[in-house]
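Hi support team,

I've been running sequence recovery on a batch of backbones for a student project. Most finish fine, but this one hangs at about 90% for roughly twenty minutes before it completes. I'm not sure whether the input is malformed or the queue is just slow. I've pasted the structure tokens below so you can try to reproduce it. Let me know if you need the job ID as well.

Thanks,
M.K.
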């Protein structure tokens, strides 16, 4: 079974900071209506300031079944819904018109398909038109001709990058660094539009628990390189380890095991 990079009782420092700032300060601005959404299933589910906490001091609310929540950030696999995922979500507006955010476990929610997603907020009623007699026609100045819109370079197609590792190693070779740099530079002008998901893998040599940790260490090495050398924002990079559970080739040959010692970098828009 795949496990998330963070199975510790407390989130990482950057996520802890985000949780403190956003959960304590009500969100009064509307969020973009293109955010992914999840729906609460089964039974009322706790939304809390920190993951793994059911203590009343950390509980924000209990979301009823059927409640649709907007997902700001996914800790885990951003491409698939997994029960091991944790979602940083926006709650519906309260009676004061504000929104709050908190963590909810992937085991209690399901993704809302794009065709079923609703807008974050219903449009407000238009202001009443003034009486006809109060409207005066004013001469309008000549409108300037609009300038031609600048040409925006289309984002290149990105099928993902696979980088490989030596036996029982998690450090990056010079060739691996060069491949990662080439991929990131191709997306540099679109950095604000994409997120990166890193999937760590290992061959079947050794114990399964050890291979899961090794896959995670490899993914974390790639993450550090992206953050330190290319200044990718930390909230735009997610990490997950599949250990030996998703081989790319049979583990019965030397070449097959070499192909399984890898990290897969995927990009989502």
């Amino acid at each position: 079974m795949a496990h998330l990079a963070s199975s510790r009782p407390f989130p990482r420092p950057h996520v802890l900071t985000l949780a403190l700032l956003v959960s304590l300060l009500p969100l009064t601005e509307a969020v973009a209506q293109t955010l992914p959404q999840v729906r609460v299933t089964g039974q009322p589910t706790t939304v809390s300031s920190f993951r793994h906490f059911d203590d009343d001091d950390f509980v924000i609310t209990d979301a009823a079944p059927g409640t649709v929540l907007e997902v700001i950030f996914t800790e885990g696999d951003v491409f698939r819904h997994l029960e091991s995922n944790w979602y940083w979500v926006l709650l519906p507006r309260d009676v004061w018109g504000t929104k709050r955010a908190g963590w909810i476990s992937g085991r209690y929610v399901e993704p809302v398909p794009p065709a079923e997603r609703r807008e974050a907020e219903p449009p407000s009623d238009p202001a009443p038109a003034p009486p006809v007699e109060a409207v005066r026609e004013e001469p309008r100045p000549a409108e300037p001709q609009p300038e031609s819109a600048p040409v925006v370079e289309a984002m290149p197609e990105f099928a993902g990058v696979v980088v490989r590792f030596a036996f029982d190693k998690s450090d990056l070779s010079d060739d691996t660094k060069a491949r990662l740099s080439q991929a990131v530079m191709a997306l540099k002008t679109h950095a604000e539009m994409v997120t990166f998901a890193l999937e760590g893998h290992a061959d079947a040599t050794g114990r399964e628990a050890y291979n899961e940790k090794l896959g995670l260490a490899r993914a974390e090495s790639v993450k550090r390189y992206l953050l330190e050398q290319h200044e990718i924002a930390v909230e735009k990079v997610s990490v997950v380890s599949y250990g030996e559970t998703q081989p790319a080739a049979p583990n019965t040959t030397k070449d097959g095991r070499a192909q399984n010692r890898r990290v897969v970098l995927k990009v989502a828009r």
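--
Follow-up from support: It reproduced on our side and the slowdown came from queue contention, not your input. The domain at 3-116 is CATH 2.30.30.40 (SH3 type barrels.). No action needed from you.
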